[in-house]
Amino acid sequence: MKNRLRIIIPGGSGQVGTVLSRHFHQRGDEVVLLARGTQPAPWRVVNWNGENLGGWTSELEDSDVIINLAGRNVNCRYTAANRQQIFGSRINATTLLGHAISQLRHPPRLWMNASTATIYRHIYDRPMDERAGEIGGNEPDAPARWKFSIAVATGWEKAFFDAATPNTRKVALRSAMIMSPDSGGVFDLLLRLVRFGLGGAAASGKQFISWIHDTDFLASVEYLIAHDEVDGPVNLASPNPLPNREFMGALRGAWGTRIGLPASRWMLEVGSVFLRTETELVLKSRRVIPTRLLEAGFQFRFPEWPGAAQDLVGRWRAANRK
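RESULT FIELD:
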């Protein structure tokens, strides 16, 4: 690919999209964000609704990379209406992009579509990778309502890989939790718990946390762009997931506090109602490893959580000094 890329990011107005847009813009690439409505940004923002073809399709012509992030935020209660929006927004936008790409005279060489490490089953005893990992949905020890997340993930990937785009390489980004010090992200939320003395183990604390430092997330996306031989599902996760108890302990250590009140399962269930979210985001054991990235030669800068937490806390403090 040429040195300066033209990168289109549908649905990139959230935290992950901002991290990606900022990175590639600072790198000197041309970034075009497709979003519902337009807002001021250092990169171009073009209006789309994720449901209908329109003028935005011309932005895809002669582009190098599409990184589709479109989909309603899952950090909410799974009511019937929210379920419909979470599922439909992902499937419809992905199908629409496939249709648009199929009509281009000069389609992009690479289409990366967001997916999730949640696609694998709730598991403690062994890690899940792209080859031997088991897709979830039938775990006897997981609540039935967790099946919805699996249905979303599998439906999302099916819509992506079913799209008829023979001249475009496709990579599904099965991302773990992306740890960035930016306001409003998952790291910011976890650190807030630690800062207020609430950063203890959640429930048993044995459930595994899969995560990736934002530096490695961005580097892995760059790596996949550069390596034409890699396609299909790829796990974007640190090679070292760890139990929730150890994860929160390392975060408390990075912040400099030893105290962290634990939260029992019933406390999490009650709290999730008031916070309008789901306990699955905390209680599901995600033990995901990035076999395909490692085999392709990618090297993680932050493979271990304690070192990653130290870096993220330092950056958070630097950004929040008054």
